[in-house]
Amino acid sequence: MANLIAQNTDVLVYSRNPALVEQLAKDRYRFGVKLHDRVRVINDLERVAGECQLIFPIVPSNNFRSMMRSVTKYLEPAHVLIHGTKGLDVTGIHLDDIPKKGISRRQLHTMTDVIKEESVVVRVGALTGPNLAQELLEGQPSASVVASKFDEVIARAQLVLASPQLHVFETYDLLGAELAGVLKNVIALGSGILEGHGLGKNIQAMLITRGLHEMVYFGRALGSENRAFFGTAGIGDLIATATSQKSRNYTFGHRLGKGEKLAEVAATSQELAEGVRTLMITRHLARNLRLRVPITEMLYRIVFEDFPVDEAMNYLITYPYEVDVDFL
Ligand SMILES: NC(=O)C1=CN([C@@H]2O[C@H](COP(=O)(O)OP(=O)(O)OC[C@H]3O[C@@H](n4cnc5c(N)ncnc54)[C@H](OP(=O)(O)O)[C@@H]3O)[C@@H](O)[C@H]2O)C=CC1
Ligand SMILES: O=C(CO)COP(=O)(O)O
């Protein structure tokens, strides 16, 4: 993203790792790609906040609140923050205690909630859509969605993000766009499980289609509209992530589907699969809200309780779905 933005403006990238900053200052290559001349990597949050009015905070959801706490003292109301994190924040309970204690709506926060809770910044937004990092690094074309309640946030994002490589869509449906990006990771994980287990495209299509229904149900239960789920931030990102070996969630699921246990995959994959954390949260939230989400339930059992994939598929095939499309 830094290289893309550098096509339009100067970019400061923050890393908390001083050794990495030093190394990048020397060799200027990251993930096999040369850093754009307008990109500088630094280890100084105060300088980032001092020199940049527009900031894109993008770290995994489990670290988002602590990252905000480390930068908040440097932030002012004039700053604009557009996050790119596809996960949920949980307060008042440790993730490992959720199976015992359950979780309620008020314990869940989107990343824009966290930004507003932890700082004086009000002009917030989200960057989402089908943006597999590996494809962006290869220079492949893509589309993003910038969501915000504020025209000026969207306009600024357009100005720095849009390029011949990236089309930028806009929406005011901030919650819907954020949730779509979060929830599709669970379906991508499931899609990888089916593929890893040797199942075909027919059942994968059913999982993705009915998975989209469940995303919409969750969205409604959390207070969002349906619309974002049917656009680039929803179906768009779902297609990219639930069908690509370049998706970490899909790949994580693929290994589970091949028979590896959660602990093995987690211990040996350096890469992040937000969908695993989201699945833990959404399955228990569904119980609390009494939502009928059989795919979420089956994926939870496969991932966290070693439930056999074949039995889960049998459950879904015989599940008494009433009609094909029931949310329009
Ligand atoms: N990669 C992708 O294709 C896409 C990712 N996303 C979303 O972006 C988010 C991040 O994913 P991604 O970048 O791929 O994850 P990675 O695991 O590749 O990288 C996470 C980065 O965040 C840094 N970090 C973690 N915690 C902190 C903190 N408290 N302060 C400062 N830096 C921190 C890590 O630093 P360190 O190296 O020092 O540990 C690391 O550089 C996720 O929510 C993901 O869903 C969204 C669209 C596409
Ligand atoms: O959100 C993404 C693509 O839009 C990235 O997906 P993964 O985290 O599964 O790689």
Q: Output the CATH homologous superfamily of the largest domain.
A: NAD(P)-binding Rossmann-like Domain
What is the total domain count? 2
Number of H- or I-type helical stretches: 16
Determine and state the CATH class of the largest domain: Alpha Beta
* Alpha-carbon Rg, integer: 20 Å
Structural class: alpha/beta
Shape: globular
Count of individual beta strands: 11
> Between the first and last Cα atoms, what is the distance in angstroms?
35 Å
Spatially, the strands of the biggest sheet line up as 5-6-9-10-11
Bound molecules: NADPH dihydro-nicotinamide-adenine-dinucleotide phosphate, 1,3-dihydroxyacetonephosphate
CATH topology of the largest domain: Rossmann fold
CATH architecture of the largest domain: 3-Layer(aba) Sandwich
Low-confidence spans? none
Helix share, percent: 40-55%
Q: What pattern of helices and strands is seen along the backbone?
A: HEHEEEHEHEEHEHEHEHEHHHHHHHH
Main sheet attributes: strand count, strand direction, barrel closure: 5 strands, mixed
Average pLDDT score? 96
The portion of residues forming beta strands comes to 5-15%
